[in-house]
Automatic annotation (TrEMBL):
InterPro entries per the UniProt record, alphabetical: Aspartic_peptidase_AS, PEPTIDASE_A1, Peptidase_aspartic_dom_sf, Plant_Aspart_Prot_A1, TAXi_C, TAXi_N
Family: Belongs to the peptidase A1 family.
Name this polypeptide is given: Peptidase A1 domain-containing protein
Matches recorded under Pfam families: TAXi_C, TAXi_N
Organism: Rhynchospora tenuis
Source domain of life: Eukaryota
The Peptidase A1 domain, residue ranges: 71-408
Alphabetical UniProt keywords: Aspartyl protease, DNA-binding, Hydrolase, Protease, Signal
Keyword Protease assigned: yes
GO molecular function: aspartic-type endopeptidase activity; DNA binding
Length: 412
């Protein structure tokens, strides 16, 4: 079963904002997200009941104006289940929701979850296995496990760790460890909380483990599309026929991120001259390339970005250039064109697979006047981040048991 994945624009309370304003806000959020990821990795590099589930899923909604994260999913929490819009984040582990009594909570679209109204809500003790698995466990309060997650942009959530039932469509998942957040602050506005789909043991994927075969997948619809995306769990769901499979690369210093074996870039079918080591993950946890739903624009190390840009610009010399826009330095004035043909851009992965992107995934409109920009950006960090603009319309699947990521045809 597939759950609906929705882009945040569709549930925004700010629909009257113009395109330029929304675009600027999105890039500001994106810069904060990326800065946080880089800081998180920098900090890390300095550190040395059973039941059977069938495949299930949910729709993914775009949340482009609501705060941190770009895509939302609606799930039911508690017994009886109360629907809540949650940010979908493949770069985080702890799933949490704002809870009553709320000492400090931001505004959200749905009513704040009240654990007193749920028959399945159970607080976790301090000596429990789940409490011991938290990366950032707070003090033990009255024998109850307190959790705290602080994000590098200054956002945070604090509260009580609990076991609760989550409902995805018609499928109920029992006794999932989630955070019941009584103190929450940051860029989560209008979402009820966050659904952690990272690679760590406390993520939803990690907790489900063998019950779903360690597999899940998603398809992100474009923000301007009438269609919604999808999020699916289970080995027999969401793994498309004809997908290309690439190896996942494990970073012991940050198991939450999904690293892929990126080795090169292509323009117009020709490999860009960038050494493979530019994309490699070092033994100290630096570099590498991750897939991230919460980042919009793909970031590349400066050397890789400049090489890609040079080849792309030389291949589009007949198009009139436009001024730079925000973090985009390669833009075109296409207002006088009905249609244009642009060179393809590809990602090359270890062991040979090549993923060729559709044009809408790398040359994007930045205003309503016909200005389009190359949707890549340079970074001084060695980390490459494949953002959600480049992921749109591609069925992306993770097989964590076999250490593979799949890229398949559009099944949104």
């Amino acid at each position: 079963m597939a759950l609906q994945l929705v882009h945040r624009d569709k549930i925004s309370i700010h629909r009257k904002k113009n395109y330029w304003h929304l675009f600027q806000e999105r890039l500001i959020r994106d810069s904060k997200r990326v800065a946080g990821l880089y800081q998180q990795l920098k900090n890390l590099s300095t550190r040395s009941s059973f039941y059977e589930l069938h495949d299930f899923g949910s729709a993914v909604v775009s949340g482009a104006e609501e705060g941190i994260g770009e895509y939302f999913v609606k799930i039911g929490i508690g017994s009886p289940p109360v629907d809540q819009f949650m940010v979908v984040d493949t770069g985080s582990d702890v799933t949490w929701v704002q809870c009553k009594p709320c000492t400090q909570c931001y505004s959200q679209a749905d009513p704040i979850f009240d654990p007193a109204g749920s028959a399945s809500f159970t607080r976790v003790s301090c000596d429990s296995v789940a409490c011991g698995l938290l990366d950032q466990a707070g003090e033990c309060g009255s024998g109850q496990c307190q959790y705290e997650v602080t994000y590098e942009d200054g956002s945070y959530t604090k509260g009580t760790l609990a076991l609760e039932n989550l409902k995805f469509g018609s499928t109920e998942v029992q006794n999932v460890a989630i955070g019941c957040g009584h103190h929450n602050l940051g860029l989560f506005a209008w979402a009820s909380g966050l659904l952690g789909l990272g690679g760590g043991v406390m993520s939803l994927v990690g907790q489900l483990g063998g019950q779903t075969g360690g597999a899940f997948g998603y398809c992100l619809a474009s923000s301007g599309s009438d269609l919604d995306g999808s999020l699916v769990f289970g080995r027999d769901a969401g793994i498309p026929t004809g997908a290309i499979w690439v190896p996942l690369v494990r970073n012991p210093l940050n198991p939450s991120f999904y690293y892929v074996g990126l080795v090169g870039l292509g323009v117009g079918g020709t490999r860009v001259l960038v050494p493979e080591e530019v994309f490699q993950l070092s033994e100290y946890g630096d570099g590498g390339a991750i897939l991230d739903t919460g980042t919009a624009v793909t970031r590349l190390p400066v050397r890789a970005y400049e090489a890609l840009r040079e080849v792309f610009v030389n291949a589009t010399i007949g198009f009139p250039r436009a001024d730079s826009v925000s973090l985009f330095d390669t833009c075109y004035d296409l207002s006088g064109f009905g249609t244009v043909r642009v060179p393809t851009i590809s990602f090359f992965f270890s062991n040979g697979p090549e993923l060729t992107l559709p044009a809408k995934n790398y040359l994007i409109p930045v205003d309503v006047h016909g200005t389009f920009c190359l949707a890549f950006a340079p970074s001084d960090s060695g980390l490459s981040i494949v953002g959600n603009i480049q992921q749109k319309g591609i069925q992306i699947s993770f097989d964590t048991v076999n250490g593979l990521a799949g890229f398949g045809p559009d099944t949104c």
